Automatic annotation (TrEMBL):
Belongs to the peptidase M15D family. This is D-alanyl-D-alanine dipeptidase. Catalyzes hydrolysis of the D-alanyl-D-alanine dipeptide. The keyword Cell wall biogenesis/degradation applies. The lineage of its organism: Bacteria, Bacillati, Actinomycetota, Actinomycetes, Propionibacteriales. It comes from Kribbella koreensis.
Length: 202
């Protein structure tokens, strides 16, 4: 890995993860280029901020579960290639029920240059410490739909409260939310604000 990048589980203990793009459980329907191991990578600054977020979540009865951190540029390139392939319908109902593949880019759910590739952006959710179950958020990871926007209409009071809990925890620890995706946060003081890396996660 590049200097200053680490495996998050080694530098931010007590945080769960499920690296979706290393598995078949993502909007492309298969493991994505550059994800050779089911682990989350990020900068040391990201890990320090996530440790603080975990400490703030615990008194509320929540833990953190990460879906993605650093994303190699080759994975982003693969997303663009996939978006141009014929629709097969395998992941559409779950991930983009109301838009086309191409619309993902036009509507800002996927980008040709992702903040994830700079190493200090994370996709995450909350889970209940008492049960281990994920908190209800009104939609899962990479549901590319208006229901995933912060303060979206059509979610329950509990889901809205859980989203707000995540947002307040993350913003208190120096993260900026992304308006279209309740799970997406970027470290305000990221160490590589203009560099997009492409080393694989292995």
């Amino acid at each position: 890995m590049k200097a200053d990048f680490v495996f998050v589980d080694e530098f931010a203990s007590g945080i769960r993860w499920d690296a979706k793009y290393a598995t078949w459980d993502n909007f492309t329907g298969r493991p994505v280029d550059g994800y050779l191991a089911n682990r989350i990578v990020g900068t040391r600054a990201l890990c320090a901020a996530l440790t603080e977020a975990r400490e703030k979540a615990e008194p509320r009865g929540f833990g953190l579960l990460l879906w993605d951190g650093y994303r190699p540029q080759r994975a982003v390139d693969r997303f663009l290639q996939w978006s141009k392939q014929p629709e097969d319908g395998r992941t559409k109902p779950r991930h983009y029920p109301n838009i086309s593949r191409a619309d993902m880019f036009a509507k800002g759910y996927v980008s040709t240059k992702s903040g994830h590739s700079r190493g200090s952006t994370v996709d995450l959710t909350l889970y209940h410490l008492a049960t281990g179950e994920l908190a209800a958020m009104g939609g899962g990871h990479d549901l590319m739909d208006s229901i995933s926007h912060h303060d979206a209409d059509g979610i329950t009071p509990t889901e809205a409260s859980n989203r707000q809990a995540l947002r307040s925890i993350m913003t208190a620890c120096g993260f900026t939310p992304y308006a279209s995706e309740w799970w997406h946060y970027t470290l305000e003081d990221e160490p590589f604000p203009n560099t997009y890396f492409d080393f694989p996660i292995a």
